[in-house]
C-alpha cells in the first residue's frame, strides 16, 4: 500500500554492490597493467599461495626465479598496496612473510584463470609444493643426527634453504604453520598432484612430531592423517589407507578415545587384509600384525582382558612366522598379563614362560628378567612358593646385570613374600631391606635432571606389558 514501509532485507536477495568495488577494481586493473611483466606474473601466481601467505622462497618457486629476485618483487608489490606485511622484518629490513589482501584474492584468482594457461598454474603449484617439502626436510634434519645419505642431501642444499640450528627451524615452523597446513589441505583436496601431496603430508607430520609435544601436535596430526586417508581412498592405495587408519587410531587412543580408536584399528585391519587390486603387492603382514596388536592394546585399556588375550594371540603367529623373537616375547608377555587379570594363572604362567624363552633366545637380558619375574608371580599364585623363590632368584641374578633399580626392588619384595610363605623370616627381612635401599636409589636417580627429546607415540611396545 502507498506509504507502507519497505520490506526489510531478506536472505537470498541480491547483495547490494559495495560502492568501493568499482573504483577498487579500476585501480587494481591499472596497477596490474602498469607492472613489469615478471612482477605481474608473480602477482597472478600468488593466487596459489596457501591461505594467501607467501614468503620469498614460495614466491621464487611459483615463478621459477632466484630467491633474491622474488624478495625484491614482493617488496615492489607491497609498495603498490597489492600485498601486506605479515611477518617480522629480516636482516635486510624486509618482512619475512606477506599476505594477499582479502579484497584482492578474487581479482588475482580471476587474472590467473584468464591470463595463465592451466598447465602453467599446475607447474607453478608443483614447484611450490616441492619447495615446501624441501624446507620441511631441512626443518626436520636439524632435530636428528643425519644419516650418510641425508648428510649428502643437506650438503647439496643451498644455504638459503637450510636452518642453522633447531631454534631457527622451530621459529620458522611457528610462523609458517598456517601456510603449511593450508598447503597440505589444498594439495590433498584438489587432487592432480597426489604424489607430491602425499610427500608433503608425510614430511609435515614428521616435522610436527620432531618439534612439538604430542599434545601440541595431536590435533594437526589428526587433520593431516585424515587428508592422507582421503588421498589413499581416492587413489585406491589400500596399504596407505591402512597406515593412515592406524595413525588415526593411535591419535584417538592418545586422546583418551579408546572406542573411536578401536573402530579405526578394525578398519585398518580390514584394509590391510583386503583385496589390494592390480596396483598393490598383496597383504601387508606388518600392517595386519600392528592392527591386531593395537586392537588388543585397546581392549586391554578398556579392561576387556579376555578379548585382549584373544587378539594378542591372533597377532602372535605373525611374529613367529617372521622370526621376530622380540615381538614373540612381547606378545606372550601381554597374553600372560591379560590372562592374569582374568584369574587364569595357569595359562598366564605358560605364556610368561614362553615370553622368557623368547627373550632368552633373542639375547634381551632385561626383558628375560622381567618375564621371569612374572613367572615367579604366577608360580606363587598357583601355590608353588619353592619354585617361585628359585625363579625369582634367577630373575634377580639377570636383573643385577642391568640398570633397572625398580625392577630389582620389585624382585626383592617378591622374594621376601616367597620367603615368608616358606617360614624364612631372616631371608624375608634381608630382601625387604635391600628393596628399600634400591627404591631409595631409584628415586634419587629419577630426581636428577636428564635431557630428553620430544617423542610421539601412544602405544609404545614394552618387553612385558
TrEMBL record:
Residues 455-465 have a biased composition (Polar residues). Residues 439-449 have a biased composition (Basic and acidic residues). Pfam families: TPR_12. It comes from the Bacteria. Residues 439-465 are annotated as: Disordered. This is Tetratricopeptide repeat protein.
